[in-house]
Amino acid sequence: MQGFLFAQLKIGDQALPISLPSNEGGMISLDHFSGKWVLVDFWASWCGPCRKSNRAIKPVYEKYKSKGFEILGVSVDDVKNDWLNAIKKDAITWKQVIDPGGWESPIAIRWGVEQLPTSYLLDEKGKVIAVDPSVEQIEKLLKKKKN
Amino acid sequence: MLLIGFYSQAQFKSATLQASGLTCSLCSKSILKSIEKIPFVQSVKADIQTSGFEIDFQENQVVDFDQIKKAVEDAGFSVARLDVQAIMNETAIQPDAHIEMGGVVLHFMNVKKQQLQGATKLRIIDKNFLPTKEHKKMSQYTKMTCFQTGVMESCCTTTASNSNNSKRVYHVTL
After folding, report:
1. Which of A30, B10, B56, B98 has a CA 20 to 30 Å removed from the CA of A110?
2. How far apart (Å, rounded) are the C-alpha atoms in residues A35 and B167?
3. At B71, which CATH number?
4. pTM for this predicted structure
5. Is B103 helix (H, G, I), strand (E, B) or coil?
6. Domain carrying residue B13
7. How far apart are CA B168 and CA B79, in angstroms?
């Protein structure tokens, strides 16, 4: 039907580099998380389902953050303040970066993001082990990981 | 001659679309991609403030609203509301009557007899351009069956030129 320049990542693919400004100032790269499992979560403040999932993932993050699990939220918000307000309102404690532009956001294009939320669970080597996993699936995988 | 000049001056500039579905219509690229493919569409943008889509039409092109509806449906959503921005040029309208403008037959409903001038917002009230309940509610403003079928019927009284049965007629209100 339509050819995409950047196909969406699949399970087994290596994650693409990310290096973007964070909500706490400075830059964060995906490399910072190597050796840990990381959920790369594409979202925007205006995306209702994303906000819901922010709240749903929180208990899992709190439970597993000391056990080698991180989340990197990647916002495609155009308005920086909308993003910062959403982080505050949803009481997000995990790392957050932004690449404005909505669907035209360079990071969204490179990762082939076509809907929000879109998330990728990466293993300690940055390999995709799940695409759009549910909170339950993430928890199941994390439980398995411990053993 | 006068009529030809008159019709070519009236045209459709843009539209605002609200789509509905089981998921958030703004959270997927599918509607944007589907509408972008329509030949008479110049550009389409998502509007976060209104949770809708802003569609600009190409100039001097006949606009076919059914193609917009189809694009939305192909993307897995339905049209909840379509407001069209039209440029009127001393266009006389009256309740429950047809006119032709920009190559499209319009049937005005629930309006006062008046003359429209300049940028005017028209809401399409045909089936599948708004929720079924609202379509039913609008039925009180006409007895003509074209409101149900969407095409010209023998019963249709019209001031539009070269009217013929089975021609698409769009029902609109202000």
Report:
1. B56
2. 66
3. 3.30.70.100
4. 0.83
5. coil
6. 2-173
7. 18
pLDDT in tens, A89-139: 999 999 999 999 999 999 999 999 999 999 999 999 999 999 999 999 999
Of B24, B32, B51, the CB nearest to A103: B32
Number of domains into which chain B is organized: 1
Judged by a CB distance cut-off of 8 A, whether residue A49 touches chain B is: yes
Tokens coding B37: 């493919």
The pair phi, psi for residue B159, each rounded to 5°, is -110, -5
Phi-psi region of A129 (alpha: psi -120 to 50; beta: other; left: phi over 0): alpha
pLDDT of residue A145: 82
C-alpha–C-alpha distance, residues A86 and A52, integer Å:
11
A103 in contact with B at a CB cutoff of 8 Å? yes
Q: What domains are there in chain A, each with its CATH number? A: 40-146 (3.40.30.10)
**Whole-complex ipTM:** 0.78
Greatest C-alpha distance within chain B: 50
Contact B28 A114 (CB under 8 A): yes
Our measurement of the distance from residue B161's CA atom to the centroid of its chain's CA atoms, rounded to an integer in Å, reads: 19
Burial of B154 (0-12, 13-18, 19+ CB in 10 A): exposed
> Mind telling me how many Å the CA of B3 is from chain A's nearest CA?
43
- Residues of A with CB below 8 A from B51's CB? 46
| Residue partners of B34: CB distance under 8 A and separation at least 6 | B71, B72, B74, B75
